[in-house]
Amino acid sequence: MDYKAPVEAYTGVVREVAIGKGNKSLKIGGENILPLHYFDEGSNPNPAKFALEILDMEPQDWSEQLVQPFKDVISDPIKWAKRCEELGADAVFLRLVSTDPAVKDSPAEEAAALAKKVAEAISVPLIIYGSGDDKKDAEVLPKVAEACDGMNLLIGPVQKENYEIVGKALLEHGHNASALSPLDINLLKELNVKLGKFFPSEKIVIDPESAALGYGMEYSFSLMERVKQIGIITKDNMTMMPIIADLGGECWKTKQAKETKEQGLLWEGMTALSLLLAGANILVLRHPETLKLIKETIETR
Amino acid sequence: MIIIGENIHVIAQAVSTAIRERDAKVIQDLAKTQSEAGADYIDLNVGPMKKDTEETMQWLVGAVQEATDLPLSIDTLNPVAMEAGLKACKRKALLNSASGKSLSKEQMLPLAQKYNCDVVISVMTDKGMPPDVESKIESIMDTVTHANELGIPNENILVDPILLPISTAGEGQRFTVVNLEFLNILEDVLPGVKSTVGLSNTSNGVPDQLRPHLNRTYLVMLERNKLYSAIADPLDKELMSLAKGEMPKIVELIHRTMDGENIDLTSLSTKEVEYVKTARVLKGETLYSDAWLET
Within an 8 Å CB–CB cutoff, is residue B262 touching chain A? Predict the structure, then answer.
């Protein structure tokens, strides 16, 4: 008897989110199949994208092997951003770490002005994250949104504590929101529901928190997997959004990654590849050689 | 549906103070209000009770029996407190609870036989909490068989599948579904046994004002799957109306939701819509979030 492989067809479709404008834009999401289920009915019109991360100040705690590829530009975020673009990043991810009250507590206006300069200097889309301090981000991110008015950037992290104030500013100035919740599918949905009451669902990206290999990656993996299953299979309106995996920083702060360059690249590469398999739509890396490694791996699939 | 009133509980500051200071009035008022609200049993949750155990239990049971004629459920893991409590009960008491753990089999189950009372037996074993329907059935069959060997008939046994909070990251909804299935087949594998649940556990961790929605809806769903009794809050009027069969239209609506009917929400009142949405979450059809009523 001939074996006929079952073919599934699902009704849920992940919303397609465009980041950036005109020829500076890229699209993520849009798939109606589970990650890599190319044998099922449906498609993924936008294969995973990769961003390289830069900071708004010279990094204080980056290991030598991570600084090395950017050594000559690392004190200038604009040059650093351009370097990332040259190295093949689909997008640049700017983290406004200097605004953190525990780092430099630099003012919101300063960060916003820099964000705008970076966005204008590069020809790939820009993703901007605040420091993650929810109170300070509530000051910084609205200023950033305003300075970059109309550029349709992806800005976050929008969190439970600040979604109202940050979400309103992103809406007013025409940006996408990256909604972050701490590794919990129920909290993730709740934030999307609350944000979605005044913010268009088709402009929300889910940041479920990405842990590094050996440091809880399996939690992030299962969570991303479930977000996709619940969105695509059971058509839950509030999880049918693309996912951003902000993993580079988590990987490079591990003891293992700091030991040797090779180990660091593999740590970041394996984490990225795993989360890609779980369904991440855009992944944030720190090392350009990891980017190269992952792209090669995907191409030889 | 038999309701075991849960409000005399040491976690409540007023109750623990009243027990410590032998303030009978506080306890008796709680017993009376629950009894007037329609409770069928009064649960006395006394915790581990480390000091003056026997004397305290005698006092407590005595005080409550002066205020109400309802039978009592003695709720403690301390076998000394349990025995003192059972001894003091005038009516056939409920031993709450035993389990498949070795210590419980040795110390608690024999008391149920000795005092010929009803006994709650949970699915818990030395290995912990069985994770799925099959392992729950397996565990409870072992423990009930053991109880039978001690001379406790199935008719005296109330099986507790143990409810866990629905809001437990990702996993909570799986538990609500598993327990519905478990109760549905319990009677077939252990004819004659009854059942009970700690209903409010389901909504533990959920914002206070939303908890009753889950408790009420889940009670109806569990009852349809043959639940016999629940340890619950009898002061929740709507919960009691549902339990006593006074809201047949809502019950029917919940049943239709359980059957997967595609109900048109626009034709329903706000309250009815809330029941449908809550039932959908409890049966695992829509993903839980604290904002489940808002979508």
Answer: no
Among B282, B285, B287, B294, the strongest candidate for a mutation testing the A interface, having the largest count of A CBs within 10 A, is B287
Chain A nearest-CA distance from B9, in A, is 30
- Nearest-Cα residue of chain B relative to residue A185: B170
Looking at per-residue confidence, does A38 or B40 come out higher? B40
**Contact: A237, B295; criterion CB under 8 Å:** yes
Residue B174, Cβ neighbours under 10 Å: how many? 15
Mean pLDDT of chain B: 96
B155 pLDDT higher than 70: yes
Residues 136-195 of B with CB under 8 A from A: 167, 169-170, 172
Predicted confidence at residue A278, as pLDDT, reads 97
Give the chain A residue whose CA is nearest to the CA of B286: A236
Say if B260 is an interface residue toward chain A (CB within 8 Å): no
* pLDDT the model gives residue A9: 92
| Residue-level pLDDT at B71 | 98
Longest dimension (CA), chain B: 59
Superfamily of domain B2-233: Dihydropteroate synthase-like (3.20.20.20)
Q: How far apart are the first and last CA of chain B?
A: 31
Could B295 and A183 be called an inter-chain contact, meaning their C-beta atoms sit closer than 8 Å?
no
Q: Is A187 in Cβ contact with B291 (below 8 Å)?
A: no
Chain B residues within 8 A of A197 when measuring between CB atoms: 294
CA distances from B114 to B58, B83, B88, B118 (A): 18, 10, 14, 11
Tokens standing for residue B5: 């009133």
Closest partner CB to B289 (pick from A183, A186, A197):
A186
Is A101:A107 a contact under the CB 8 Å cutoff? no
- CATH code of the region A47-299: 3.20.20.20
**Cβ atoms within 10 Å, residue A15:** 18
Share of chain B above pLDDT 90, in %: 95
Residues of chain A under the 50 pLDDT cut: none
Interface test with B, best of A163, A190, A219 (most B CBs within 10 A): A190
User: Which pTM value belongs to this model?
Assistant: 0.87
Q: What is the pLDDT of residue A301?
A: 60
Q: Kindly list the domain boundaries of chain A, sorted by start residue.
A: 47-299
**DSSP secondary-structure letter at B293?**
G
Q: Is the pLDDT of residue B49 over 90?
A: no
Question: What is the rounded CA–CA span in Å between residue A39 and residue A14?
Answer: 18
| Among the partner residues B172, B285, B291, nearest to A193 by beta-carbon distance | B291
DSSP A238-255: TT-S-BEEE-HHHHHTSH
| Cα end-to-end distance, chain A, whole Å | 31
Cβ separation A186–B294 shorter than 8 A: no
pLDDT at B241 over 80: yes
Contact between A296 and A88 under an 8 Å Cβ cutoff? The reply is no
Domain edges within chain B: 2-233
**Distance from the A184 Cα atom to the nearest Cα atom in chain B, whole angstroms:** 5
Q: For the segment B109-124, what is each residue's pLDDT rounded down to a tens digit?
A: 999 999 999 999 999 9
